[in-house]
Amino acid sequence: MLEMRPDCERCGADLPANAPGAFICSFECTFCVSCAEALDDRCPNCGGELMDRPTRAGKALAANPASAERRFRA
């Protein structure tokens, strides 16, 4: 199951699990739209392709909450 990380690893922007606008690689490195575009849709950590992260909402989100661990390091 996806962790649904709460922030962009590059700029720290909030990325709620129930909203579109997050991009992930196969290791779940997570970036916002702007950063994914700046990175040419390539993960700077593993070199993998960044893809749209699906959303999780309603009962699915309540039963399987998103991660609260932030990855952005200022």
Automatic annotation (TrEMBL):
InterPro entries: DUF1272. Pfam families: DUF1272. It comes from the Bacteria. This is DUF1272 domain-containing protein. It comes from Sphingobium olei.
